[in-house]
Amino acid sequence: MRFGPPRSPSKAVFGNLSNMGARVARMFRNFNLENRVYREISKEKPQAAPRHAGSVPPPAGGSVAAETVTEDLANKKNDPLVSLLRSVYVDSTDPAAAEMSKEDTADKESERRPLKFSLPGASYGLAELTDVPKGKLTIAEALKALSSHQRHPQTMTQEKIAQDYCLDLKDTKALLEFFVPFQVQIIPPKTEAAKQIKAS
User: Fold this and answer.
1) Where are the domains of the chain?
2) For this UniProt entry, which segments traverse the membrane (predicted)?
3) CA distance 189 to 193
């Protein structure tokens, strides 16, 4: 027994029609399914393209003859090629000069200078540096050079900083132009109530 307002007859009819339509569609879809599958299976498959002649392996009986031919070609001298190889002139340079240039660069890298400025104490538990390679700066030295140049631009010129820290002039110009020190700002909360987490 159904309670509630009576259903309109149009909804009942269309609801049954949609089920009936699905049944009819299923019948047409499954009609003669086995025969259609058998027809597809029995169709001739397309033939594969023939392989390239170079990739076909040689026949088993002719392998001995092929090996002897390749050995003959490998052992045979080609007189024009041999004469061309004899006419080649190779000019080599002394490897001692290359080793000397490597030693010069190693000497330059090994040149070190003592630190001009360092932070007090061992920062972050790391060992304190005592010297750095020439042409290099620590962050503390870079910040010190920037601040001294900003405070006293007449006395701490680019040339003076380059001389003090053993830098190239172009590196010093790039340092003063492009190196921007970071700033850490801790913004305090506006009220004391903002510090506490309210229980809900």
Assistant:
1) 112-178
2) none
3) 9
- Closest by alpha carbon to 142, among 110, 112, 118? 118
CB 146 within 8 A of CB 110: no
Instruction: Compute the half-sphere exposure of residue 73: CA atoms within 13 Å on the CB side of its CA.
Output: 6
Residue 189 contacts by C-beta under 8 Å, 6 or more apart in sequence?
A: 195
Successive 10-residue mean pLDDT values, the chain, 200 residues: 56 61 81 84 82 64 64 78 86 74 64 73 64 86 89 93 92 88 73 62
Tokens 């001739």, residue located: 44
| CA–CA separation, 163 and 157 (whole Å) | 10
Q: What is the CA radius of gyration of the chain?
A: 44
Which of 154, 155, 136, 156 shows the shortest CA–CA distance to 145?
156
Other Cβ atoms closer than 10 A to 138? 16
**What whole-number distance in Å separates Cα of residue 173 and Cα of residue 168?**
9
The answer to pTM > 0.85 is no
Which residue in the block uniquely carries the two structure tokens 């259609």?
A: 36
